[in-house]
Amino acid sequence: VQSVASGGGLVQPGGSLSLPCAASVFTSSSYGMAWYRQAPGKERVWVATISLAVGVTDYADSVKGRFTIARDNAKNTMYLQMNSLKPEDTAMYYCNRVPEGSWGQGTQVTVSS
Questions:
Q1: Can you tell me the distance from the alpha carbon of 23 to that of 72, in angstroms, rounded to the nearest whole number?
Q2: What is the rounded distance in angstroms from the CA atom of residue 112 to the CA atom of residue 15?
Q3: Closest CA to 19 of 113, 112, 104
């Protein structure tokens, strides 16, 4: 079952946005989770990961210190809190389990004045 990202939109540079990812009960209780993004004309790249049990996190250098990944297994939901957004953060954002399963619907984030 695919995980579905939502919460995208248009935000000004320096602004914030929070993206929820709805996962299946099985996924949220059995796998680590991750966020990815794909900018126009570019390949999809990894953004952040959170482990299953103890919530160990890891981030791409490009978002470290600005983005925070979190999960609420009771709600089968993962989150990506994005602060200090930059125009280069503009992309379609996707969530998936670790290791990757099939890809679900992404959510568009556009950072522009």
A1: 10
A2: 10
A3: 104
CA torsion 45-90-24-64 (nearest 10°) is 60
In angstroms, the CA 22 to CA 51 distance is: 16
Note the pLDDT of residue 73.
85
**Cβ atoms of residues 77 and 28 within 8 Å:** yes
Helix (H, G, I), strand (E, B) or coil at 28: helix
9 sits in the region (left: phi over 0; alpha: psi -120 to 50; else beta) called: left
Residue type, 87: P
**Residue indicated by tokens 């709600």:** 75
pLDDT tens-digit map of 25-49: 777 778 899 999 999 999 999 999 9
Contact criterion met (CB below 8 Å) for 81 and 20: no
φ/ψ (deg, to 5) at 38: -135, 115
